[in-house]
Amino acid sequence: MTQVYNFSSGPAVLPREVMLAAQAEFTDWHGSGMSVMEMSHRGREFTQIITEAEADLRKLLGVPSGYKILFMQGGAHFQFAMLPLNLTQPDDTIDFVDTGHWSRIAIKEARRYAKVHLAAVGDGSGIPAEADWQRSKGAAYLHYCSNETIGGVEFPFIPQSDVPLVCDMSSNILSRPLDVSRFGLIYGGAQKNIGPSGLTLVIVRDDLLGHARSETPTMLDYQIHAAADSLYNTPPTYAIYIAGLVFKWLLDRGGLVAMEQQNIEKASMLYETLDASGFYSCPVERPYRSRMNVPFRLADERLDDAFLEGAKARGLLQLKGHRSVGGMRASIYNAMPVEGVKALCDYLRDFVRTHG
Questions:
Q1: Where are the alpha helices (DSSP H) in the chain?
Q2: What CATH class has 254-355?
Q3: Which positions in this protein are listed as binding L-glutamate (predicted)?
Q4: Which of 101, 150, 190, 263 lies in the 20 to 30 Å Cα band around 43?
Q5: Domain 17-252, second-level architecture
Q6: Which residues are annotated as a binding site for pyridoxal 5'-phosphate?
């Protein structure tokens, strides 16, 4: 079989070692005679799996005491509603930083439940200077998206905030070290750097629990899930199991410090190839370019189909940009090996030689 490198933005590539480990345990987890997919979520076996997963994630991120880790469902879209239902009252104001598509989806949903104030609005090429943000007085919280998966804009800093800082980290969590203590709540879908789709991760400070509005559905109340240790209802058990294997894979490779260095290497290699070509262009200013999602365009969009066909022939898959913006996009999450980025860079240069 030809070597394939999957540049999908999510669901995304998983570490091969993780998939092989899951394959070996698929029908019989640790001599239990059961697949993880068959286990009771309240049984001893799965209790061990979820307990280890949480402990390993706490170690990876250095999650301090006073924070709960919740393994949930519904993706970031559920969180867009859960946040205002749990952290605001109808007359409260939420400050948002709008840096792209996913910021705007979160803003649209939040407006159903509370007042929204735009502290800053980006133009798609970068992050507005923090000194220019216009924050509202007494906001319930400040929300931002640390990495816009579609636009390829990534925050190189953690904003300062006097109110709880809330962040959608769906596409760059676990890609670098993080000071969790700076945040009130962090959330993200698992299907990029954590595991398969179906799992959503929430890290929430204890003092933000227990304040849900009276009309909040039981399943949308963070306190309910925290009190039940993520087992109020049947959780996405197999996705949690895979996430736990990913956490161990990261720890075995030196944790997030080592992973950040590899991600810097991959992103630098790809951006340097694009910039040096005179043929490809990237819409994001250099200080704000994502290490995870690299959007780019060809000099002549009439060559897009030929580019994608040639890439597929080389085993370079899922490079088509999001339908809302077009162009190309290479997602190079933690599990994308350096060799995959090298193969893409070789193809980028070869395509210029034949079509430039």
A1: 16-24, 44-61, 75-87, 101-110, 222-227, 237-252, 255-277, 304-313, 338-355
A2: alpha beta
A3: 9, 42
A4: 190
A5: 3-Layer(aba) Sandwich (3.40)
A6: 102, 149, 168, 191, 233-234
